Amino acid sequence: MELVLKILKDGLMAVHVPYACGFAIILLTIIVKAATYPLTKQQERIQLETSRLYKQAGVNPLAATIPVWIGLYQALSNVANEGLLSEGFFWIPSLGGSGISWLFPFVDGHPPLDWSDTIAYLVLPVPLIASQYVLMEIMNPLK
Question: What transmembrane ranges does the database entry give (predicted)?
Answer without folding.
Answer: 12-36, 57-76, 88-107, 119-136
